Amino acid sequence: MPTDLRHVWDFEDPAASEQRFRDLAATTAEPVATHAWTQVARALGLQERYDEGHAVLDDLVAGDAESRVRVELERGRLLRSAGSSAAARPRFEAAAGAAARAGLEELEVDALHMVALVVEPTEQLAAQHAALARARTASARAARDWDASILNNIGMSHADAGDHGAALAAFEDALTARERIGDDARTRVARWMVAWSLRHLGHTERAREMQLALRTELDALGEHDPYVDEELGILGG
Are 180 and 147 in contact (CB under 8 A)? Predict the structure, then answer.
């Protein structure tokens, strides 16, 4: 089982996450320190500081299997974020293979989901379904929980191709997965995706009801989502 670093992340604030991972790397023993440094590189990439991210990875000595997987995975993310999807693909494929050999299911599925983001468009759905199949057969819950994100990506692939019926089916499955996982904020996003797809299929009244329910929940939380408002504007809400 890989080191659980998810609790350190705030993807809305990569700069703060970077500092927390630096602090963790400075105060913990190996190999967790190296695992933390790979997340420093990831946080730098999210700030578009790609050269700094690569420099962090260059300095690491990946002595254990998880470190080697994480270095390949984050190298690939840096390359993809900088616009080099072709260079990122072999990194993600190497990470997936190494993770599979080491029994690191969560990292394996993460890497497979990244492969699906960088393959040629004609390969995309097949790669997404391969990642989904691996997630669904995993024994580790964290690996299985990747199904929600992968299903959303499958939905977007169908929507981009103009097949909103297939997109809706994927988004509904993603919503079921989000409800199982239990993250309220991400579940609201999944509900928005279902409503968005319903609108594209002409089911405007149901879509409007779902978006209004989302706005009511957000109002009760003191939060605001401009995408909900945008959809309600289109739907006459």
Answer: no
Residue 218, burial from CB neighbour count under 10 angstroms (0-12, 13-18, 19+): middle
Q: Which amino acid is at 189?
A: V
Q: What are phi and psi of 134, to 5 degrees?
A: -65, -40
| Contact assessment for residue 92 and residue 76, using Cβ atoms and an 8 Å cutoff | yes
Which residue in 97, 103, 157, 101 sits closest to 126, CA to CA?
Answer: 157
For 171-229, write each residue's pLDDT tens digit.
Answer: 999 999 999 999 999 999 999 999 999 999 999 999 999 999 999 999 999 999 999 99
> How many CB atoms lie under 10 A from the CB of residue 212?
16
Q: Please, what are the domains in the chain? A: 1-144 (1.25.40.10), 145-237 (1.25.40.10)
List, for residues 142-152, the tens digit of each pLDDT value. Answer: 999 999 999 99
Helix (H) or strand (E) holding 176: helix 164-181
